[in-house]
Each structure stands twice: as structure tokens, then as C-alpha cells.
């Protein structure tokens, strides 16, 4: 307590923060503020607000150096991780149904199976006949109930000698109808599946024939072509993919193998051991070529802009050439024929490459033809342009 009183008295006298005076320095008056106290007070105030720049720079440089060293170390230690890819090889599975299942799973286009449309119709007809018989039996039973009591069917629960029979009929109708509706819905879903393309169908049939994966009797399921469906969804230009893949197989070389077959795709039909569980016959492995679908799709998509530019530039060039260079009466007839041919080509490309509806194709073809007609109308033969210039430049006669 006495210490606090002394400090308060010293503050009143201005002695707080006073340092020892150097010899030779005149003593300051008691009421005069001390220079050392003032400087120390100012220094303490400035230090509380912000440290001097001389102390900030070394700290900042040391912090930046440490952080950069940490970042460099993390960058050097961290490596890009690639997930290892496992590819199911067809020849690793034994001959028979395991090998056939691996083949059907190797490509989306090979997922073809029978729809069993005849069995669907047969089961539905049977269920339909059962429901018809139950319907007639229920009507007859309810007529018998009404003969006993006119108001018997006005209640949810029916009483009387025929009540148990009616309840049993309703339960049978419910179970039969639920089964019928389930089969009917499944049949509708089966009808919505697409048919495989001819190339996909032939590929599966050729594999069954070359590999002899199944016995002859059990391999005949592929021969029911009208009953075969594919699990693959429809594509915009599947026919173009088939054409490209056929050309690649026909002209297969090392360059095509590098461009259109990934490392994982090559492994599907890889043969690296002489005693594999299912090895293809001699000279038959050359037909088992897999191409990466994404790369074929990119090539097909790159063909579309080329076709669009061709349909826009080529007819304009031909029409201009016919009007300016062919100076006879057949020029305009040839122009009309050119318009007709390119408009038909434009409509065919729309229908093949896109999912446009009929009225959309008609509207697009009409707009395309209108553009060509407007261009043809604005292009005048050179003789006509010269005659116009001559008529404008020659003064009129009075």
C-alpha cells in the first residue's frame, strides 16, 4: 500500500521515468518535465502503436523464407497419384459361359439378349383368361347375393351364405390382377429396348461361331434376330460410329492402333501367355479388335462441322460459278437442280445426325433453301451488270 502511495507522489512530482543524469548536465527544475521521461514516454507510445520498420523487415523476411521453404518441401514431397486401372481380359476366363459373359461385358454394344416376346404374350394371355373367368364368377356370385337380399351389397361387409365365396373371389382377383399388371409393365419396358445394330449383332454371332463358347443347341439363341434387344441406349449418330469402326478395322495399322486404342482397351483381347484359359483359334484373334468408344465419338463429332461448312460454302460457290461462267439458258436450270440436291442433303444430315422431329427438319430445310435462293437472286451475270452500268452512264434521249 505504501508503495502505491510513493508511486502516486512521484507521478505528481514528475519523477516517473526519470533516469540518472549524466555528470555535467545542469539539474532540471523540479517542475520541468524530464527529457528522458518525455522521450521514453513517446517511445513507449510509438512502440505500442507500431513497431519500427527496422524490426519489421527482418521478421517478414524470416517468415517468408520459412514459408517458402515449407512450400518447396511440400511440393517436392507431394506426387501426383494415378489410380491403377484393372481391365477384365476376355481370355482370362475359362471357355463356356464365363468367357461369353466376359465378352458381352467387354463393350456396351455387345450387351444383347433375347426379349422372349412370345413367352410374354403367352403369359399375358393366360393371366387375361384367368381374370376373365374370375370376373364372370364374381358377377354370378353377386347376383346370387342380390337374390337373397336387395340391400346386401350396400355395405362393405357382405353377410349371408355367399359372403365367404365372394371374399375368396375378391382375394383371387386381387392376386391375379397384381401379377397381370406386373407382367404387363415388364412387357412394356421390354418393348422400349432398342434393337442392336447389324454390326453389333454380327459381332456377337461371329464370336459365338469362332470361339465355340457354347454347345450348338444352346448357342442358337443368337439366331432369333427379331427377338434380340440391346441394353445400350440410343445414340445420335450410331451408324456413323459403325462406319468409322469398320473403316478402322479394314485399314488397321500401327498408327490407327495408337490413335484409337487406349492402353486399357488393348488389354481386353490381350494374349500374353500360351496357356490361357480361353485362347481364340489361330488367325481368329485378328478380328477381336477393340477401339476406344470416346475416341471414335470425338472423330464422329469432328466430322459434323466439316459437313456443315461444306453444305454452306459449296453450294454458294457452285451457284456463283454457274451464273458467271456458264452463259447459256441451262445455267438457271442447273442452279435449280443444285438447290434441290443440297437441300435434300441438308435434310438427310439433320435426320441422321440429330434427333430433330419432322416439322423441325422441314422448317430448317426451308430456311436453308431460302438462304440459297436469296443468294442466287442477288447474283447477276456479268453481262447484266455491264448493261446496267451502261444504262446508268449513258444520258437519256429526249
UniProtKB/TrEMBL annotation:
<protein>
    <recommendedName>
        <fullName>DUF6594 domain-containing protein</fullName>
    </recommendedName>
</protein>
<feature type="transmembrane region" description="Helical">
    <location>
        <begin position="331"/>
        <end position="354"/>
    </location>
</feature>
<keyword id="KW-0812">Transmembrane</keyword>
<keyword id="KW-1133">Transmembrane helix</keyword>
<feature type="domain" description="DUF6594">
    <location>
        <begin position="97"/>
        <end position="373"/>
    </location>
</feature>
<feature type="transmembrane region" description="Helical">
    <location>
        <begin position="299"/>
        <end position="319"/>
    </location>
</feature>
<dbReference type="Pfam" id="PF20237">
    <property type="entry name" value="DUF6594"/>
</dbReference>
<feature type="compositionally biased region" description="Low complexity">
    <location>
        <begin position="33"/>
        <end position="50"/>
    </location>
</feature>
<feature type="transmembrane region" description="Helical">
    <location>
        <begin position="361"/>
        <end position="380"/>
    </location>
</feature>
<keyword id="KW-0472">Membrane</keyword>
<feature type="region of interest" description="Disordered">
    <location>
        <begin position="1"/>
        <end position="56"/>
    </location>
</feature>
<feature type="compositionally biased region" description="Basic and acidic residues">
    <location>
        <begin position="12"/>
        <end position="21"/>
    </location>
</feature>
<dbReference type="InterPro" id="IPR046529">
    <property type="entry name" value="DUF6594"/>
</dbReference>
Amino acid at each position: 500500500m505504501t508503495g502505491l502511495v510513493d508511486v502516486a507522489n512521484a507521478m505528481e512530482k514528475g519523477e516517473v521515468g526519470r533516469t540518472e543524469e549524466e555528470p555535467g548536465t545542469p539539474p532540471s527544475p523540479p517542475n520541468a518535465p524530464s527529457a528522458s521521461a518525455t522521450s521514453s514516454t513517446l517511445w513507449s507510445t510509438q512502440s505500442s502503436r507500431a513497431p519500427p520498420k527496422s524490426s519489421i523487415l527482418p521478421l517478414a523476411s524470416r517468415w517468408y523464407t520459412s514459408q517458402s521453404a515449407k512450400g518447396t518441401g511440400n511440393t517436392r514431397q507431394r506426387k501426383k497419384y494415378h489410380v491403377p486401372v484393372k481391365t477384365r481380359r476376355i481370355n482370362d476366363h475359362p471357355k463356356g459361359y464365363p468367357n461369353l459373359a466376359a465378352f458381352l461385358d467387354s463393350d456396351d454394344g455387345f450387351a444383347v439378349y433375347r426379349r422372349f416376346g412370345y413367352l410374354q404374350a403367352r403369359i399375358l394371355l393366360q393371366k387375361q383368361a384367368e381374370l376373365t373367368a374370375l370376373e364372370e364368377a364374381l358377377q354370378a356370385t353377386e347376383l346370387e347375393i342380390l337374390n337373397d337380399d336387395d340391400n346386401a351389397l350396400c355395405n362393405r361387409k357382405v353377410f349371408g351364405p355367399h359372403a365367404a365365396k365372394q371374399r375368396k373371389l375378391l382375394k383371387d382377383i386381387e392376386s391375379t390382377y397384381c401379377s397381370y399388371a406386373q407382367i404387363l409393365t415388364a412387357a412394356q419396358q421390354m418393348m422400349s429396348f432398342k434393337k442392336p445394330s447389324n454390326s453389333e449383332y454380327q459381332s456377337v454371332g461371329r464370336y459365338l461361331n469362332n470361339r465355340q463358347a457354347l454347345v450348338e443347341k444352346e448357342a442358337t439363341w443368337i439366331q432369333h434376330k427379331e427377338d434380340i434387344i440391346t441394353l445400350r441406349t440410343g445414340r445420335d449418330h450410331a451408324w456413323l460410329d459403325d462406319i468409322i469402326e469398320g473403316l478402322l478395322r479394314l485399314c488397321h495399322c500401327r498408327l490407327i492402333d495408337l490413335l484409337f486404342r487406349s492402353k486399357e482397351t488393348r488389354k481386353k483381347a490381350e494374349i500374353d501367355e500360351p496357356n490361357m484359359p480361353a485362347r481364340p483359334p489361330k488367325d481368329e484373334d485378328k478380328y477381336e479388335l477393340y477401339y476406344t468408344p470416346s475416341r471414335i465419338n470425338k472423330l464422329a463429332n469432328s466430322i459434323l462441322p466439316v459437313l456443315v461448312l461444306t453444305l454452306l460454302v459449296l453450294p454458294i460457290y457452285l451457284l456463283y460459278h454457274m451464273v458467271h461462267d456458264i452463259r447459256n439458258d441451262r445455267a438457271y436450270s442447273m442452279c435449280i437442280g443444285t438447290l434441290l440436291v443440297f437441300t435434300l442433303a441438308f435434310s438427310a444430315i439433320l435426320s441422321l445426325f440429330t434427333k430433330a422431329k419432322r416439322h423441325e427438319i422441314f422448317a430448317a430445310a426451308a430456311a436453308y433453301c431460302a438462304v440459297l435462293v436469296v443468294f442466287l437472286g442477288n447474283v447477276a451475270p456479268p453481262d447484266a451488270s455491264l448493261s446496267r452500268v451502261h444504262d446508268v452512264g449513258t444520258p437519256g434521249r429526249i
